[in-house]
Automatic annotation (TrEMBL):
This is EF-hand domain-containing protein. PANTHER family: CALCIUM-BINDING PROTEIN, RETICULOCALBIN. It comes from the Bacteria. Keywords: Signal. The keyword Cytoplasm does not apply. The keyword Membrane does not apply. The lineage of its organism: Bacteria, Pseudomonadati, Pseudomonadota, Alphaproteobacteria, Sphingomonadales. It comes from Sphingomonas telluris. Residues 34-69, 73-108, 111-140 form the EF-hand domain. PROSITE patterns: EF_HAND_1, EF_HAND_2. Residues 1-21 form the signal peptide. It holds the Pfam family EF-hand_7.
Length: 160
């Protein structure tokens, strides 16, 4: 049986999958001739009566087909995720099943973290070594070098 938390979480996951399904991935580099070719094919597909124009009805039909295709993809992804979570295959998620995938896990082992910070490889991390990586990241984000990282600078740094 779904709890409110479980339903809300599945709903949020489905919403995120839907947004991802509707937003196509950006190509590495756009070539104008390919772009024009795709536009022409898209126009021809939308122009159902082949009169050289797209009417509001044809636009609505094209949008409805796109939404239906995206919804099918979302439904399949949500179903697959649900089936993964439903480990006892009884068609519902228990709190235990949900909690099994909602665990916080370490990103790296202590040895990996030590190796990352221990730049002089002496088996321990000094204060300078501990501060070096985060300070370097701060300095890279502070693009105008004013000693402050604004939200805009944070956003730019996060997108790199």
């Amino acid at each position: 049986m779904f709890t409110r938390l479980t339903f809300a979480t599945v709903f949020l996951a489905a919403t995120a999958v839907a947004a991802q399904a509707q937003a196509p991935a950006a190509p590495e580099a756009a070539v104008r001739t390919e772009f024009v070719k795709n536009l022409e094919a898209s126009f021809d597909k939308a122009d159902a009566n082949n009169d050289g124009f797209i009417t509001a009805q044809e636009m609505q039909s094209m949008e409805a087909k796109g939404i239906a295709a995206a919804q099918e993809k979302v439904d399949a992804q949500v179903t697959a995720q649900f089936q993964k979570l439903d480990t006892d295959k009884n068609g519902s998620l228990s709190l235990a099943e949900f909690k099994a995938v909602a665990k916080v896990k370490a990103n790296a082992s202590p040895q990996d973290l030590l190796a990352k910070f221990d730049t002089n490889k002496d088996g321990k991390v000094s204060k300078a070594e501990y501060q070096a990586l985060p300070l370097a990241a701060f300095d890279r984000a502070d693009t105008n070098k004013d000693g402050k990282v604004t939200r805009e600078e944070q956003a730019k740094a996060a997108s790199r």
